[in-house]
Amino acid sequence: MDFKGSEIIPGPRTEDQLPHTAEAAVKIVIVGGFGVGKTTMVGSVSEIRPLTTEETMTQAGIGVDDNFGSDTKTATTVAMDFGRISITEQLVLYLFGTPGQERFWFLWNGLFEGALGAVVLVDTRRLEVSFDVIGRLEECGVPFVVAVNTFPDAPRYALSELRTALDLPEEIPIVEVDCRRRASSRDVLMTLMHFLHALATSKAPA
Q1: Which pairs with CB-CB distance under 8 Å and at least 24 residues apart come from 128-136?
Q2: Rounded to an integer, what is the distance from CA 36 to the centroid of its chain?
C-alpha cells in the first residue's frame, strides 16, 4: 500500500533481491511512540514495496492506546514495518519499524537483536513518550540518532533545548525530518551511518 501523504518513488519498486553489487547488508530499527511516523518513514524511503502489519484501529484501543495528536489515524502497526534502501552500490540497509503502542513493546527485544543502529523518531507534542524508548535502546546497547518529525501543528524548539529535555549527551546527533519526504528520511539514515562510522573509528585500535 502507499502511505497517505508520503512521497511515491517514481516507477516500479525493485524486486526484493539484493543488488548484485551489494557487499554488506545491515539491520536498522526505527523506533518511537505511537503515531510518530515510523510507518510513513519506512514507506517513503524504501526502494522495495514495504511490508506492513497495519490493522484498523477499533473501539477496543480506546483508553489503552494514547493517540493524542493522532486523532485522524485509522490504522496502526501491530508487529513491524519492513523496507530496504541502498545507501551505496555496496551497502544496503534493511529497515525495521517497531510498533509504537506500549502493549507491543515486548516485540522490541527481538527486533533490536542484530541491529547495527536505530533511529528514534520524536513528536514534540509528546516528548515524554520518547523517554522510555531511548531508555530501552540504552539498556540494549544499540547506538541511535534522534530525528524530530516536523508535524505541521507541532511546536518547534531549538535542537539544544530538545537535547536538554531528552537528557542526551552531546555526541548523539539530533536532526529534523519530514518523514513523508524520501530525501529527508534518507538524510536521517545517512546521519546514522556517519554516526556509526565515527563510533567504530573511535573504538578502533591505534
Answers
A1: 129/32, 129/33, 129/34, 129/36, 129/66, 130/32, 130/33, 130/166, 131/166, 132/102, 133/31, 133/32, 133/33, 134/166, 134/168, 136/31, 136/105, 136/108, 136/112
A2: 9
The rounded distance, in Å, linking the Cα atoms of 79 and 102 is 12
d(CA 178, CA 159): 15
How does pLDDT run across 30-68, given as a tens digit for each residue?
A: 999 888 999 999 999 999 988 876 554 444 444 444 555
Taking each helix axis from N to C end, the angle separating 159-166 and 128-140, rounded to the nearest 10 degrees, works out to: 70
Closest CA to 85 of 16, 170, 153: 16
pLDDT in tens, 109-128: 778 899 999 999 999 999 99
Strand stretches in 87-150, DSSP E: 91-97, 117-122, 144-149
**Confidence (pTM):** 0.80
Q: Which three cell numbers stand for residue 139?
A: 539498556
